[in-house]
């Protein structure tokens, strides 16, 4: 049974179909939350909150083929809510960087720019848009909607982040970025 069929069954009240769907993407939800929160305990809380919210709202999924995107959007929203409650920035620990490096193949990142560089040299908003756009392959329009920002702002953030990364490649690893 494919994703579309499972989503339709879940929307009709089939709890087993929902459970199978959620379990299929649970690791992605955890990784997403961990990237935002930097804590395995908080990430697990977000997984639980995402399960609860998505189960209650499964009937609202209009395009079943985008179920994973819909789930990730809920997880990001839950992560951002948790960050707001904390009232502080994500702390990017060395353990988090190692975890992220293991998750994404570095061959997708050009030349000397590694995932560690991406995290170290971008602002929180730039990280957010880059992760959504390139890690989850979400369009810039969808990323802007998920972040609750205008499309133009999303494009600006993406452009600025890519410009920083290009500068990093051209200048080499020995030179530090300025924050803007």
TrEMBL record:
Domain RNA polymerase sigma-70 region: 21-88
InterPro entries assigned to the protein according to its UniProt record, in alphabetical order: RNA_pol_sigma-70-like, RNA_pol_sigma-70_dom, RNA_pol_sigma70_r2, RNA_pol_sigma70_r4_t2, RNA_pol_sigma_r2, RNA_pol_sigma_r3/r4-like, WH-like_DNA-bd_sf
Domain spans labelled RNA polymerase sigma factor 70 region 4 type: 114-165
Pfam families reported for this sequence: Sigma70_r2 (PF04542), Sigma70_r4_2 (PF08281)
Keywords on record: Sigma factor, Transcription, Transcription regulation
Similarity annotation: Belongs to the sigma-70 factor family. ECF subfamily.
NCBIfam families in the record: sigma70-ECF
Protein name per the record: Sigma-70 family RNA polymerase sigma factor
Organism: Paenibacillus lignilyticus
């Amino acid at each position: 049974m494919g994703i579309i069929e499972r989503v339709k069954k879940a929307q009709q009240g089939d709890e087993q179909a929902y459970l199978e769907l959620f379990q299929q993407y649970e690791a992605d939800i955890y990784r997403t939350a961990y990237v935002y929160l930097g804590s395995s305990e908080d990430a697990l809380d977000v997984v639980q909150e995402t399960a609860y919210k998505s189960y209650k709202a499964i009937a609202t999924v209009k395009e079943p083929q985008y179920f994973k995107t819909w789930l990730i959007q809920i997880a990001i929203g839950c992560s951002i809510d948790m960050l707001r409650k904390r009232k502080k920035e994500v702390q990017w620990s060395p353990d988090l960087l190692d975890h992220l490096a293991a998750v994404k193949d570095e061959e997708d990142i050009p030349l000397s720019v590694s995932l560690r560089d991406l995290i170290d040299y971008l602002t929180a908003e730039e990280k957010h848009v880059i992760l959504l756009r390139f890690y989850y392959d979400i369009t810039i329009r969808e990323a802007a909607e998920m972040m609750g920002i205008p499309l133009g702002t999303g494009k600006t953030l993406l452009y600025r982040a890519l410009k920083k990364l290009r500068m990093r490649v051209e200048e080499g690893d020995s030179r530090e970025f300025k924050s803007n």
